[in-house]
Amino acid sequence: xxxxxxxxxxxxxTRPIRPDGVDKVTGRARYGADASLPRMLHGAVLRSPYAHxxxxxxxxxxxxxxxxxxxxxxxxxxxxxxxxWVGDIAYGSDLGxxxxxxxxxxxxxxxxxxxxxxSATSDERAREACEMIEVEYExxxxxxxxxxxxxxxxxxxxxxxxxxxxxPLPEGPTNIARHLLDEGGDVARGFAExxxxxxxxxxxxxxxxxxxxxHACLADAREDGKVEIWCSTQGPFMVKExxxxxLQYDPNDIKVVPSEIGGGFGGKTTxxxxxxxxxxxxxxxxPVKMVMTREEVFRATGPASGTKIGMKLGARSDxxxxxxxxxxxxxxxxxxxxxxxxxxxTAFSAYRLPNFRxxxxxxxxxxxxxxPYRAPGAPNAAFAAESLIDDLARTLGRDPIELRLQNAxxxxxxxxxxxVFGRIGFxxxxxxxxxxxxxxxxxxxxxxxxIASGWWFNAGMQSSATVSVDEDGSAVVxxxxxxxxxxxxxxxxxxxxxxxxxxERVRPVVGDTDSVGYCDTTGGSRTxxxxxxxxxxxxxxxxxxxxxxxxxxxxVELDAVAWREGAAVLLNGRSDDSDKTxxxxxxxxxxMRLTGGPIIASASVNPPAAAPAFGIHICDVEVDPETGxxxxxxxxxxxxxxxxxxPTYVEGQFQGGAAQxxxxxLNEEYLFDEQGRLENAGFLDxxxxxxxxxxxxxxxxxxxxxxxxxxxxxxxxxxxxVPPLAAVANAVRxxxxxxxxxxxxxxxxxxxxxxxxxx
Length: 759
Known about the structure:
Elements: H1 3-6, H2 21-26, E1 41-47, E2 53-59, H3 61-64, E3 69-73, E4 85-86, E5 93-94, H4 95-102, E6 107-108, E7 114-120, H5 123-132, E8 134-139, H6 146-150, E9 164-165, E10 176-184, H7 187-193, E11 196-204, E12 216-221, E13 227-231, H8 236-247, E14 254-258, H9 274-284, E15 288-291, H10 294-300, E16 307-315, E17 321-333, H11 340-346, E18 355-364, H12 378-396, H13 400-407, H14 426-435, H15 437-440, E19 447-456, E20 463-469, E21 475-479, H16 487-499, E22 506-510, H17 527-554, E23 561-564, E24 567-570, E25 583-584, H18 585-590, H19 592-595, E26 599-605, E27 613-623, E28 630-640, H20 647-666, E29 697-702, H21 724-736, H22 747-758
Parallel strand pairs: 1-15, 9-10, 13-14, 17-18, 21-22, 28-29
Antiparallel strand pairs: 1-7, 2-6, 2-8, 3-7, 4-5, 10-18, 11-16, 12-13, 12-15, 16-17, 19-27, 20-21, 20-26, 23-24, 24-25, 27-28
Helix pairs in contact: 4-8, 11-12, 12-21, 13-14, 16-17, 20-21
């Protein structure tokens, strides 16, 4: 049997109090805006009032004369970073475009694009000075939709940018930044053999991650050339690398200290303020602190892509899927790099589909450059695919769970993008949903029920960890991954499990870039899996050291010593070994000075793969037929976690993703006017769900162990946001009789659908 299935856990799977809980509820925890230094200045950014315009001139003379202003920065004060894609098509970036997004050069490409920055003795004075900077613009026609961007006469955002990706690529100037194509089988023959075909065009708007803490940083550029940055981020090493690249600094000169993070959801996997703060600090010789307003967060940071998806599915009369075709048009915002790659990957791979053709287009428009948002691209793809699966079930008169089970991908099936699935839990989640009381519960008047599946491939990537034990027998585990979803607790639990000590005896630490080994960004549902692998390996090295020291004390071979119940024990004892009673951890640590000194171990990993996680959501809604107001009245999340290290955190991830997806389905969207100005740049107008908008979200943790992890862990944070868009839409379809193809399902839109049915 594999390690994860025959092992009985004592710490893993329990629900201890979160290690950072007291600091957070008492206000002691330090977030990005809480950092301060002596002689600190405050920075502010001047942002473009136009969505598309050439910068003719910038006059800073009046602002520079304002008392308290210490420095003013424009793109001319920053290095010209060469434009060019670095890395592979899925995970790469363009550092030149990143620099241009941080500070506009020659053109502004969205309303809110930074054009200048000021440091002053107060935030108020810095913002006052920004208003005194005179910028002359030559307004240009904005491109505000996918259809407009693809029109033959559309203005071109980047005249010299050539499209990337798979042939055929458009020739000449274009707003298409990238083209992806995946094909398999014979699509034309598949549809010709299909007995039933369902199709539709589905649209989703730009939406924001809605993290509560705005972007914030404090930079201190010192006389010796060293730079220290304190910031709210999902990845301190990412901030170090990107800031060094944008400013053309030696990365070795930059130290990044991650603060506590008040939410990220993928939106804090890039940089906006950090290079500006460093440059202002370098100019003034004083630390500079910058904190975005909520309006700036909405206008000038990365939302999720707006999308337009054309999709078609064909099936035999017995329900067997036989062909699928999809085209994904994704808004990248002002610069290339949308989540279209993941949409193409996840679109059909949950089901066995012998014939398919999937195209993806990354399209630039005059809106903020997008950023990842929790399983980026997959919720959009699932909205289309799971809506059509629901339509197919209705057409064939089939139970929607049974239809999914019939076609579900299983171990050994090949995904549309190439890899073969290992052990996955899709069927198990479907079977759990079929047996759940929610699925058969009666519905009330004007209510409807929807179900949808979703999955995320999860990530591995690079991680490292250091584990040490102190003289009192307690342990410290240090990693470089900010805790955005319970990773401190997970790391402590895994360390405690290997040492066989209570988790309360383990202190998890998130270190800065100078004090811990390299870790890729916290995101992609990778941290508990990949960093957890490093933690387990480092802890096992510590245990091996403890066994060796016990062997030295007892004067026996290492193989004669085992580690059990938090102590070294002697195996196969001889008659003269009666005095060799077990040596507990605290006894061994008390003798560290006599047996070799401090006990510490580090490990690094770069797992080439991770294990996909599948989830099924059941949603009940109630629709007011007179107003179109839709209310979610019951919601259940069923998801495979592989192994839930801390079940409470896992349930919280399930609930959080569902809540965000419900908001996306019913209320949330960026609203732009005809000039490209965002009209709802605040929480009062950008309608995120609050507690009173939602029922208690029920959760069921399914555990199908991941064979790539010694405990069976799969990532859980991404998958939970994938099904809700379709689950809610399918429930509203059930309640109203009308299939909606565009989100969000606002009351006017729902009422319009109801009226069409009445006609």
